[in-house]
Amino acid sequence: MSSMGTRRFRVYRYKRGDPGWRFDLFVVPVTSRTTVLEALRWTQLHLDRTLALRHSCLHASCGTCGVQVDGREVLACVTPVDELGATITVEPVANIPVLTDLVVDMREFVARFPEEIATVRASEQPAGAVPPDGIGAYGRFEDCIECGLCLSACPVSATSDAYVGPAALAAAQRLLEEPRGVDPDRVLDWADDPSGAWRCHAAFECTAACPSNVRPAERIMALRGALAGRGDRA
Amino acid sequence: MNDVPGADRRAERGPVLRKGVGIPASGWFDPRGRALGGFAFSLNRVTGLGLVFYLYLHLGVLSLLLGGERSWSDFLRLATSWAFLSLDILLIFGILYHGLNGIRVALVGSGLVADRQRALWWSLGVIGTIALIAATLHIYGSK
Lengths: 234, 143
Known about the structure:
- The complex is a heterodimer.
- By secondary structure, chain A is α+β, with helices and mostly antiparallel strands.
- Chain A contains 7 helices and 9 strands.
- Chain A has 2 domains: 5-104, Ubiquitin-like (UB roll), CATH 3.10.20; 107-229, Alpha-helical ferredoxin (Fumarate Reductase Iron-sulfur Protein, Chain B, domain 2).
- Chain A has helices spanning 36-46, 107-110, 149-153, 166-177, 184-191, 205-209, 216-229, and strands at 5-13, 22-30, 66-69, 72-75, 87-91, 98-100, 103-104, 120-122, 139-141.
- In chain A, helix 4 runs antiparallel to helix 5.
- The relative contact order of chain A is 0.12.
- In chain B, helix 1 packs across helix 3 and helix 3 (82-109) packs antiparallel against helix 4.
- The chains are: A alpha+beta, B mainly alpha.
- At the A-B interface, strand 6, helix 2, helix 6 and helix 7 of A face helix 1 and helix 3 of B.
């Protein structure tokens, strides 16, 4: 990169077997267009090849580069360094166990979702419409990119690992909007739990953190409305 | 409901990063990256704890009645001092904030106005501020 200056990066470090975590400091040359992810990759290439991070698409579609930058949940690939201070603190997302450095164990995030959830689903199409040759059926991605930023930002998840969290509840509410063969009562039964929709305290931090406009908090509130609306099922 | 993910291999897990200063609940008060709803949540926690503290303080004060007229009169002299009246205003702030934010959370939580949480906070904030100013004028005016 053509350098226009430098930034100091305090990067969270942890390797399996370490007695604890620490911060390492790296001085990275940046331009006005450098993103946090680019700075981290430069660090990995030139300063410390053991630095572990996740990334894939580089344009906010895959959700793999979610981190905390100065305590705020962001996708590193679309976060310009230029908008940050002279020293930038990069940490993994909160409330999900760290595997190594900035990489967290997303299995524990995905395991929270109800079994009926699928991120790629059959797309509805007008009756009689036929896909072009060679295409069996249209598929469509859900808005949620499963980055885990909402779970990291949630203050309830900070004190309770039992709470399933915003992403899973938002996905459940999506199922109510488009059941596509799933029994809505099963989804509501799943969400109607002290560690489910009722555990949310309406801080709306998940909606503020979400980079994909899923608006998890509003969906949790809608889920609650649906739960309240079906009355006493005891 | 799923079991807590990974609970059976908790001992093998790496550290779980929490916001705040290491104590889990301190993450409620970590201001970094917080939006309006997060601050509203944190202040609701603070005022809630304050009101619980006041409840026990109030019961303690009432127990002064067991000491007879003199101990109660001594307390009344303290209770009508400027400093004590200022604490009353702090108490009224806590009651107003916690109560009005509770109404906001109830309205939002019903799913009826889920996308109006910010507007509700500001609207109820105006009502609360007017009520607090009126209460302050009344308390200091009656001194």
